[in-house]
Design brief:
Mean pLDDT: 69
Largest sheet: 9 strands, antiparallel
Shape: extended
Number of helices: 31
Distance between the termini: 111 Å
Bound molecules: guanosine-5'-triphosphate
CATH class of one domain: Alpha Beta
């Protein structure tokens, strides 16, 4: 005969299992739980201990003493207030009472069960534990209580064997868990069966833990419990029935292995109760609480059916859901962990604009190349680019994820997120690029000893105010020397030339950059190139110091270039060199006779007077202030001075060798151009085969045209040259994209001031006549600009807007005002590339108004509607896919895809604010269709188009002011 179980005996004796277990322990007999089997002598002992006990039939109705089980449960006491009801119904079944010694935790689990009843059970973690057996019956498990429960119930049944129920005498041979009876494999059934124990208690000998019955081994149960993936998504609840097992996480405590201090989603306030759910406890315990609360609503009588999941779907759902999670296998569980980790990360990240992005510690530096985009930045900090776009938007800047951004924008974003942004300077970028090819010019220079250096000619740039005679002076120098030289005459202009001058009985060479004005200087400086050793500042003696004179000297001084002043037009009447000297003293150029160190030379470019003195002064200044030496015995390095594309010869570049010697046949890379030097010419058009330091030569053989200021050097092979050129090109492209965003524009000037980016509105004024320019400047300077902001005209001039103006605007963040003048196309392109705002006016007051409004932050762009074309609808084709297509003929102008549109019928607007979403010529997509051509026009979701309608297309253009 099968051994009897404690609860069966308890029932027989009319006592609770708990009492039975307690008594047994008292008697010195150790039993693990109410479901433990006991030997005959022990049975006898227990019977002896309750001599008066009257055995009750197993089928007897639940004892009214039912509460007893819940009573002793410590957990019951802790049951959440909302869930008292469940406790009572739970009572009928003493099973959950789990008074068995093995189940002390169950007691605690009970209160934890209450959340089930609380309705949050949908995610009841309880389910996790029994999961192994849940195998796929998630659905049914999710359904409300009345449905037959799913099989994995076994574990719960295990700990609350139905036999424990009062009166639930085991029916021999009846195995409620047996699959053969259509129950055993379904968890709900088992639960129910357990609850229903009074009716169908498992017969003695029936082992609900038997793996053969699809139940988890007790041992496995623990395994399951230890699995961290709390199905409910919250922190693992205390091990269900087992209460907090040693080593098991406290309810609400972070999971082991998770960053303990960080909150988990499950710890969020609205979920705090969930962890208290028992589900993850030992199966039995889990069942207990579930049944407890559940019993009430569904089965007032405490009838088992649905009792265990009394709270209907919630309880069950929770169980099944948890089963589902747990039972769905490790894959699902892992996913859950991952999801949680992500959630955790999200929670620890700052949220701006509703998105979460990782935050830096304020000191971590992120290096970005010029022209980097949000995506590049996101890559570096492992963030979602879209989230960064949102953050930036909330910081008041709009950009797409792939749009190149300028340094300021990155700084704003970086500061917000706790990162220091370091946009690599062009020089650093170049250095990094070259170091990736094992080229380090700095180290090379340092390694050069004095013995390797040889004297080289100074390189001179002539600068000065417009019309003060720069060109004439350069010509004078060249002509004088050419006349004196052996050559028949200079045949071409190559951007630079070298002359020889006898100085203190030695013939010395001087190289002149033959590009008058600031152009070469500013353009090269803008690229970080230093070509000029000495600047000759030309000041017309009859005109004195003018704004561009000041600008020129400012540039030269900023570049640390010594200045020699050529006081020109000395032949003219009214020439007043002393006035010039006096004026320049104010700018730090003090003549030697006044005790300073600046050489002033009186010249007349027109008459060729004072040229030798000027050259003398240049050499003296060079000797005094500079170390004019370079190593000629190495591969050449230098700078491109100017370049052009020649029809017959291809790219022709004038380069100035700065150190080393350039030879025909060398492979060079100059900016984004590369190639082998096919031939070299000097300024006289003569072929040269070598060019040493400070020597300008024209070079043939480059792949394309380098820009003025691009550095060049000799590479070991063509491949290296090509690779460097390509990398530079990519970097330039990015940088150019970054600049597309306007540096500063009138519309956003107030914002720039508010952001502290600027405090001065720099203007460059260009006009058709000097009177207008002066009048404009006077009026502008009279504008009341308010506090904290300044208005500065950094340059004014007569004539078209030149590249030089744009370069100046680039350097000084200025806005160019054109009064009755426009820039040449290439200049406009340059301005576009450099992000320089240019504005054109023909009425002075309009310009003044705009500047005034900009300073007050009130200048906003105005748009006007410009009609593009009209089309007459001839036939409407209906398409379920793309909506109606208007087969039309263009009557005027053009119909352009994506332009705005409206539909007119008998002169009345029947559809407005539309856009030409699709445009076809026959079957082909078209960007635009011209007058008298037929086309198919799709107006998006607007389908109310009819034959005879007119489709009018237009676009909004920024209205020119003035
Ligand atoms: N009398 C006199 N006229 C001179 C002298 N140098 C230049 N000029 C005249 O001044 C005018 C301007 O000379 P440029 O050499 O074109 O002046 P610039 O500074 O190069 O002018 P931009 O190229 O417009 O900046 C010309 O008409 C010259 O003939 C000089 O020494 N004496």
């Amino acid at each position: 005969m099968a051994k009897v179980r404690v609860h069966e005996l308890a029932k027989e004796l009319g006592i609770t299992s708990k009492d039975a277990v307690a008594k047994l322990q008292e008697l010195g007999e150790f039993v693990r739980s109410a479901s433990s089997t006991i030997e005959a002598p022990v049975v006898k002992k227990l019977r002896g201990a309750f001599p008066d006990a009257v055995a009750k039939p197993a089928t007897a109705p639940a004892r009214p003493a039912a509460p007893a089980p819940s009573g002793p449960k410590p957990g019951a006491a802790q049951a959440t207030p909302e869930a008292p009801a469940p406790e009572t119904p739970a009572a009928p079944s003493p099973a959950p009472a789990a008074p068995s010694p093995a189940a002390p935790p169950a007691a605690e689990a009970t209160p934890q069960a209450s959340p089930f009843s609380g309705g949050s059970g949908a995610e009841a973690p309880a389910a996790e534990t029994p999961a192994p057996q849940a195998q796929g019956d998630q659905d049914s498990g999710n359904r409300p209580g009345p449905r037959p429960a799913t099989p994995p119930a076994a574990p719960s049944a295990a700990t609350r064997p139905s036999g424990a129920r009062p009166g639930g005498a085991p029916r021999p041979g009846n195995n409620p868990f047996a699959p053969s009876q259509g129950m055993g494999s379904r968890r709900g059934d088992t639960d129910r069966g357990a609850d229903r124990g009074a009716d169908r208690p498992p017969r003695p000998g029936n082992n609900p833990f038997a793996p053969s019955q699809g139940m988890p081994r007790p041992g496995r149960r623990d395994d399951t419990q230890q699995r961290p993936a709390a199905g409910a998504g919250g922190p693992r609840p205390a091990a269900g029935a087992g209460g907090p097992r040693p080593g098991a996480p406290r309810p609400g405590a972070p999971r082991p292995g998770t960053p303990g201090s960080r909150p988990t989603p499950g710890m969020m306030p609205n979920r705090t109760e969930r962890p208290a759910a028992p589900g993850r406890g030992a199966p039995g315990a889990g069942a207990g609480p579930r049944r407890g609360p559940g019993g009430a609503p569904n089965s007032p009588s405490g009838a088992p059916a649905g009792g265990g999941f009394g709270k209907g779907g919630r309880g069950r759902g929770g169980t099944a859901g948890a089963f589902g999670k747990g039972g769905a296998g490790r894959g699902k569980q892992r996913k859950s962990k991952r999801a949680k980790r992500q959630e955790l990360e999200q929670m620890s990240a700052p949220s701006l604009g509703g998105v979460s992005v990782p935050r830096g510690d304020g000191s971590s530096t992120v290096r970005l190349r010029r022209g980097s985009s949000i995506t590049d930045f996101a890559d570096k900090i492992e963030a979602n680019p879209a989230a960064l776009v949102t953050v930036l938007f909330h910081l008041g800047e709009m950009a797409t994820a792939t749009q190149s951004l300028d340094e300021e924008t990155f700084e704003v974003l970086g500061t917000e997120l706790g990162y220091k942004i370091q946009v690599v300077s062009p020089e650093d970028e170049e250095r990094e690029l070259l170091s990736s090819f094992d080229i380090d010019f700095d180290a090379e220079l340092e390694a050069e000893g004095d013995d390797q250096l040889e004297a080289r000619p100074p390189v001179v740039t002539v600068m000065g105010h417009v019309d003060h005679g720069k060109t004439r002076l350069l010509d004078a120098v060249r002509n004088t020397k050419v006349v004196e030289g052996e050559h028949g005459g200079i045949t071409q202009h190559i951007g630079a030339y070298q002359i020889q001058h006898v100085h203190e009985d030695t013939t010395r060479a001087i190289t002149f950059i033959d590009t008058p004005g600031h152009e070469a200087f500013t353009a090269m400086r803008a690229r970080g190139a230093k070509v000029t050793d000495i600047a000759v500042l030309v000041v017309a003696a009859d005109d004195g110091v003018m704004p561009q004179t000041v600008e020129a000297l400012n540039h030269a001084q900023a570049a640390n270039v010594p200045i020699v002043v050529a006081v020109n037009k000395m032949d003219k009447e009214g020439a007043n060199p002393d006035k010039v000297k006096g004026q320049l003293t104010e700018y730090g150029l003090v003549p030697e006779e006044y005790g300073g160190d600046t050489m002033f030379v009186h010249v007349s470019a027109l008459q060729g007077m004072g040229i030798d003195e000027l050259l003398e002064a240049v050499l003296l200044t060079a000797d005094a202030a500079l170390d004019m030496r370079a190593n000629p015995n190495k591969d050449a390095r230098g700078i491109a001075i100017e370049a052009n594309l020649d029809r017959g010869r291809g790219a022709v570049a004038t380069v100035l060798v700065q150190s080393g010697t350039l030879n025909v046949g060398d492979t060079i890379v100059a900016g984004t151009a590369h190639g082998r030097v096919r031939a070299m010419f000097d300024e006289n058009g003569d072929v040269v085969t070598t060019a040493g330091p400070s020597r300008p030569v024209q070079v043939l053989g480059l792949s394309n045209v380098p820009r003025a200021g691009d550095t060049f050097f000799v590479t070991d092979d063509e491949r290296t040259g090509r690779q460097i050129a390509e990398k530079r090109e990519a970097a330039d492209r990015n940088a150019a994209l970054a600049k597309r965003r306007k540096r500063i524009s009138l519309e956003d000037f107030d914002q720039a001031v508010a952001d502290g980016k600027v405090d001065t509105l720099n203007l460059i004024l260009k006009g058709d006549v000097s009177g207008a320019v002066e009048a404009l400047e006077d009026s502008l300077l009279k504008i009341d600009v308010g506090e904290g902001v300044q208005l500065r005209v950094i340059h004014r001039g007569v004539g078209a807007i030149t590249q030089n103006d744009v370069n100046l605007a680039t350097v000084d963040n200025a806005i160019i005002i054109g009064f009755n003048v426009k820039p040449a196309e290439r200049v406009a392109d340059l301005a576009e590339r450099e992000g320089v705002d240019m504005r054109f006016y023909s009425v002075i007051y309009a310009a003044i108004d705009d500047i005034e409004l900009a300073l007050k932050g009130m200048l906003k762009p105005e748009y006007e509607e410009v009609q593009l074309g009209t089309a007459e609808v001839r036939e409407v084709f209906r398409s379920s896919k793309v909506g109606n297509i208007a087969g039309s003929i263009v009557r005027s102008g053009i119909i352009r895809r994506n332009s705005r549109a409206r539909v007119l019928r008998d002169g009345k607007v029947v559809g407005d604010n539309l856009s030409v979403d699709s445009l076809k010529r026959f079957k082909d997509d078209a960007t635009e269709v011209r007058t008298d051509f037929e086309c198919g026009i799709g107006l998006g979701s607007f389908n109310d188009v009819k034959e005879g309608d007119t489709i009018e297309t237009f676009e909004m253009r920024e209205k020119p002011r003035a």
